[in-house]
Amino acid sequence: MRYFLNVVYLFLLVAAFPWLLWQAIRKGKYREGYAAKFLGRVPRREGGATCLWVHAVSVGEVNLVRPLLDKIRRQRPEWRCVLSTTTMTGMELARKRYPDLSVFYCPLDFSWAIAAAMRRIRPDVLVLAELELWPNLIAAARRSGARVAVVNGRLSENSARGYGRIRPVVKSILQRIDLLAVQDPTYAERFRRLGAVEESLHVTGSMKYDGAEIDRANEATTRLRDLWGIAEDDCVFLAGSTQEPEESLALDTYLKLAESHPQLRLILVPRHTDRFETVAEMLDARGVRWQRRTELDSAPADPQARILLVNVIGELGAWWGTARIAYVGGSMGPRGGQNMIEPAAYGAAVSFGPNTRNFRDIVAAMLARAAAVVLHDGDEMTAFVRRCLEDPGYRHELGDRAQQLVREQLGATDRTFSLLESLVDRSV
Questions:
Q1: What is the pLDDT of residues 265-284, one digit of tens each?
Q2: pLDDT of residue 60
Q3: How many domains, in total, are found in the chain?
Q4: What's the rounded Cα separation, in Å, for the pair 186 and 365?
Q5: Is the model's pTM score more than 0.90?
Q6: Do both 403 and 423 map to the same domain?
Q7: What residue numbers bound the domain in which 267 lies?
Q8: Alpha carbon 33 to chain centroid, angstroms
Q9: What is the CATH number for 46?
Q10: Is the domain of 163 the same as that of 299?
Q11: Cis-peptide, bond into residue 245, ω within 30° of zero
């Protein structure tokens, strides 16, 4: 099977090469990590301590595993954790957030690359965040004697339907997984139908809730609030994890309301680094006064600039704590939405677009509790922000319901850690 997969992967790589080359030239993607990705030349682990190889694909998963890694540091400091990621933005954040860990690009699922990485890392447990069912990676881990765990597992209806078409293959992969810690019973049933071992399945809840900060007075948010000079009576409207055309819609909303509501401020946080300059050009073209986040490190905030473009990676979680009104991006286009838990945890009045398939369970819970609002276009965005400005009671009630929902969901990390601890103890 592994050799057949190698041929398939090589064919797909050759077919996608023109697109990959274009992305590398135009957007700066796929320009590093080739030795790790194709040859498995990851940092060699020294010593014989118990090792967990944690794989987090991109920015979202890197943020997701933070409470789990913190828990491991506190409870089992003798364990050695290493962290792999797939994307450049994920790598940038991982290096910044975990300077004490060995961080590297995960090898592509070629058998030779995976085998080389396993020899260098020698993990006791391979921990995969959410759903990374790479056959050669999982098989190589088991051949090396490592256990395999999926944490915060999720399986959308569409993915389950697609995997169902190759159920025998998926079943053979799932039956090599020792621990499937999934977010809710619906996901558990989908994994069960695909052939997961019953004893491996556990419903733990979503660790995404545990990673959210609830206290607006936390150190990181306080520092950023002071850095941009946000006053107590300012009302920040933050559009985060945005894509085209969401930044433009948020700016339109601000411009329509700023004159009649001078307390309003706007923060834009594009999802991808390659959009930073595009959004900057849009702001210049509209003739508004604005600042870049990076300028604040070397110069005082401009008191006349009521718009901030956050052009750095890894700060959105803290910036959400400055927001009274929140729009969670990636939800008016085809992407499928971004994580809305962070602004909800701070008690912001949360909104997002109609396309949130990646967070169906969270969205369903929030809407059932009247803890968020769905916006379909720019006019609805403007109407929502206007209502939040003119009716503080409405804004506070919406935010309070969102924050209460997050509080009720806490604890998934503790449950996941306990399961991992039992797995580790069985493997060493």
A1: 999 999 988 899 999 999 99
A2: 84
A3: 2
A4: 14
A5: no
A6: no
A7: 219-409
A8: 21
A9: 3.40.50.11720
A10: no
A11: yes
